[in-house]
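$ ./design --mode recover --in tokens.txt
reading tokens...
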């Protein structure tokens, strides 16, 4: 049985270092992407909401959109923690589709100022989306999507930490 706890006083940098350690332990011995993404979404959701840095900036959604093998320009809803979400997102649409199309992390401090934003949860105000890229061919495997109830929640520290997490996920799953 895996148990995860985080010291509430961790800085973001310290949190992401600890998260990576816990993620590697959690994924050890399991290669199924559904199982791994389900556990990772929970680990990140409860982890972020357990540290003081995010007490004022509550994380309300953490999850994955996975590339559709039948239609490579579409993301399908994968495992997540939070309210019901959009089932399908086309590349280039919204924050998730933009991250998939550009293969670049998107930090949006105010989602209502993002052109073409897709509002799955009207309570969300900021978002970070990190593409998960195949180490073999650089194709988009999935995107990690994290939403906050507050504007301006995410920054460069989140980007760096979550990109490392996504690199670990990419090599830990059989896609």
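writing sequence...
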């Amino acid at each position: 049985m895996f148990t995860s706890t985080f010291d509430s006083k961790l800085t973001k940098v310290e949190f992401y270092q600890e998260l990576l350690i816990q993620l590697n332990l959690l994924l050890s011995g399991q290669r199924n992407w559904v199982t791994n993404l389900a556990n990772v979404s929970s680990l990140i959701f409860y982890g972020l909401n357990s540290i003081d840095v995010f007490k004022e900036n509550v994380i309300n959604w953490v999850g994955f959109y996975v590339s559709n093998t039948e239609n490579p320009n579409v993301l399908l809803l994968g495992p997540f923690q939070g309210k019901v979400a959009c089932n399908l997102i086309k590349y280039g649409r919204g924050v998730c589709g933009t991250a998939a199309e550009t293969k670049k992390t998107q930090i949006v401090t105010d989602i209502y100022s993002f052109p073409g934003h897709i509002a799955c949860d009207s309570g969300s105000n900021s978002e970070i989306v990190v593409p998960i890229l195949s180490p073999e061919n650089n194709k988009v495997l999935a995107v990690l999507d994290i939403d906050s109830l507050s504007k301006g929640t995410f920054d460069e520290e989140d980007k760096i930490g979550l990109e490392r997490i996504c690199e670990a996920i990419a090599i830990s799953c059989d896609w």
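exit 0
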